[in-house]
């Protein structure tokens, strides 16, 4: 493939996205420190110098990859929560949204963000902290609602950390490809997280959606 110079490219936005996608895949496969600018250039058919037409440095690429993942994930979560009512339905929607995001088109970027966040400079982390905090607040709102309704007994902040770790790194999620599989995984996660049988969780959700008063959870 002939190498190109981005400065002469007629579709700069497309080239930028191609660079981000290639970098995300390479960072996921080789690690941020193991992937090189040369490898990213080779993956997109560009010269190494062309990359710096859009990104000042390799770290700028990493920051943009993580930024895209975080903003996309937050949008997906808001979309799922917009139609959910009640603490259990909202928890179910939140878990499904998180799985949908990390298993979607930006899955590689999400995995890079989980693993390589700490490799960003303090200034870069500060620039992304607002979105990161917004995502945390969504989780805390849902978990605090569960605790208020006695579905969650432990500290919500600690639960958030362990729950996200389970969702992000659970081996089972590697094989999730269909929407029905994602929904089943989300339901299983919710029932385990709340120490409920799956059937019981389904019944409580159904009662909540129908407006019936659910039975007390032991």
From TrEMBL:
| Keywords for the protein's UniProt record, in alphabetical order | DNA-binding, Repressor, Transcription, Transcription regulation
- Please name the PROSITE patterns in this protein's record: HTH_TETR_1, HTH_TETR_2
Q: Where is the HTH tetR-type domain?
A: 13-73
**Is this entry keyworded Repressor?**
yes
Q: This protein's superkingdom? A: Bacteria
InterPro entries, per the entry:
DNA-bd_HTH_TetR-type_CS, Homeodomain-like_sf, HTH-type_TetR-like_transc_reg, HTH_TetR, Tet_transcr_reg_TetR-rel_C_sf
The feature table lists the DNA-binding region at 36-55
The protein's name in its UniProt record? TetR family transcriptional regulator
Q: Which organism is it from?
A: Parapontixanthobacter aurantiacus
């Amino acid at each position: 493939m002939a190498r190109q110079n981005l400065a002469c490219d007629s579709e700069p936005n497309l080239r930028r996205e191609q660079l981000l996608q290639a970098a995300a895949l390479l960072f996921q496969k080789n690690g941020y420190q193991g992937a090189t600018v040369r490898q990213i250039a080779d993956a997109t058919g560009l010269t190494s110098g062309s990359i710096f037409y859009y990104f000042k440095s390799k770290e700028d690429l990493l920051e943009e990859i993580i930024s895209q993942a975080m903003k996309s994930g937050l949008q997906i979560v808001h979309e799922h929560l917009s139609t959910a009512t009640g603490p259990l339905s909202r928890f179910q929607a939140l878990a499904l949204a998180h799985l949908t995001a990390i298993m979607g088109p930006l899955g590689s970027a999400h995995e890079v963000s989980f693993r390589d966040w700490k490799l960003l400079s303090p200034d870069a982390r500060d620039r992304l902290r607002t979105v990161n905090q917004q995502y945390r607040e969504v989780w805390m709102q849902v978990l605090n609602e569960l605790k208020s309704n006695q579905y969650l007994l432990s500290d919500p902040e600690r639960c958030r950390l362990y729950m996200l770790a389970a969702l992000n790194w659970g081996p089972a999620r590697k094989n999730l490809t269909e929407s029905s599989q994602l929904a089943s995984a989300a339901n299983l996660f919710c029932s385990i997280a709340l120490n409920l049988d799956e059937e019981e969780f389904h019944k409580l959700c159904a009662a909540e959606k129908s407006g019936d008063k659910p039975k007390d959870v032991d």
